[in-house]
Design a protein that fits this description.
Blueprint: H1 7-10, H2 29-62, H3 72-81, H4 83-95, H5 103-135, H6 142-167, H7 179-209, H8 215-248, H9 254-286, H10 292-341
Helix pairs in contact: 2-5, 3-7, 3-8, 4-7, 4-8, 5-6, 5-7, 6-7, 6-8, 6-9, 7-8, 8-9, 8-10, 9-10
């Protein structure tokens, strides 16, 4: 799509001063004030969102949501639960053939992924009951309520929240200078989200199960389950992040591209949650003698393997195009140098 230009600008040869006619630049003191005020408002909104997320997280700690997290054994469970997700995010970072992303931007995105998970928790709890109630016809068809919950609330909310963690900081940085960077930062945001989600699940499960078994036994099972669930967040937000990167370099289609990325991520996310909730127990019940955990393990391996492969293939296509473009550029430079000396 060609760049849109005002008719006045399109009909001039560039020698006419079109300041505040069809063009604009910072010239006057009032112009500088307008730029300063805009930047102040944007900065205030950004820091306001971050502050709100911090306060919510502090509130969750104060209300006991992470009461056992200070226990070194529980902390170890949480760390172990995110190892597969960390390995996958690290692989996506390594697979990026463009300039490596700086540690500062990666850490900031990871922390924002942790912080903004609190928004998802509130929205899921507020909207989830409404969606499942309406979707199921107020209990008439329960499975439709599950579909409504995961596809209309949990999937979209969590993917938008993770994308916000990328958009608020890394997206604005100079280091975000390639489409594929969106997938890398999206994966890191997913890792942060998975970390705090796993921490919440593990602490709550340990608190409820520790009455009937020791802490190690109580934590080992839920840690294994959460370790299987974590990579999914990296994959989903990797897709959404890739399209955010595509949007950054295609501003005329930025909105639809972001929507496409979030929709893809939300659909994959919703299908995973629905299958794990409905399909896995049903299959385990049919396959007499096979534990539900074994069915869940097989499902996760196949599901995450499929969509992980599709994500890696998408990134590989970008990397191949990057290498081809770099090779052509080098050949053009060599050809130009030879011509110069002939």
């Amino acid at each position: 799509m060609a760049e849109r230009r005002d008719p006045v600008e399109a009909r001039t040869d560039g020698s006419t001063d079109l300041y505040e006619i069809s063009d604009w630049e910072v010239r006057s003191g009032f112009d500088r004030f307008a730029v300063w005020l805009y930047e102040m408002v944007v900065s205030a909104v950004r820091w306001g969102v971050i502050t709100l997320a911090v306060l919510i997280l502090i509130g969750q700690f104060a209300l006991g949501g992470f009461g056992l997290l200070a226990d070194p054994r529980v902390g170890a469970f949480v760390l172990l639960s995110v190892v597969p997700a960390f390995v996958l995010a690290a692989y996506l970072w390594y697979a990026d053939v463009t300039a490596a992303e700086p540690l500062e931007a990666l850490v900031a995105t990871f922390l924002l992924g942790i912080l903004f998970a609190s928004f998802a928790g509130i929205l899921n709890s507020r909207l989830g009951g409404i969606a499942s109630g309406l979707g199921s016809g107020f209990g008439a068809v329960p499975v439709l309520g599950v579909l409504a919950l995961y596809f209309l609330v949990v999937g979209p909310v969590e993917e938008v929240v993770k994308l916000l963690a990328v958009r608020l900081h890394a997206y604005r940085a100079e280091s975000f200078n390639a489409v594929i960077d969106g997938a890398v930062y999206g994966a890191v945001a997913g890792l942060g989200f998975a970390t705090i989600e796993n921490a919440l699940y593990i602490t709550q499960s340990v608190e409820s199960l520790a009455q009937s078994m020791n802490l190690i036994e109580a934590g080992a099972g839920i840690t294994t389950v959460r370790a299987l669930a974590g990579p999914g967040h990296v994959i989903y937000s990797g897709f959404a992040g890739y399209y955010l990167g595509l949007a950054k370099f295609n501003q005329e289609h930025a909105g639809p591209l972001v929507v496409k990325g979030v929709t893809i991520a939300a659909l994959i996310h919703g299908a995973y949650n629905t299958s794990a909730t409905v399909l896995v127990p049903a299959v385990a019940e049919v396959l007499t003698g096979v534990s539900q955990f074994a069915v869940f393990f097989g499902f996760v391996v196949v599901y995450d393997g499929l969509f992980g492969y599709l994500l890696v293939r998408k990134l590989s296509k970008y990397n191949n195009a990057y290498r081809d473009a770099s090779s052509s550029d080098r050949e053009g430079t060599i050809s130009s140098e030879r011509t110069e000396f002939e």
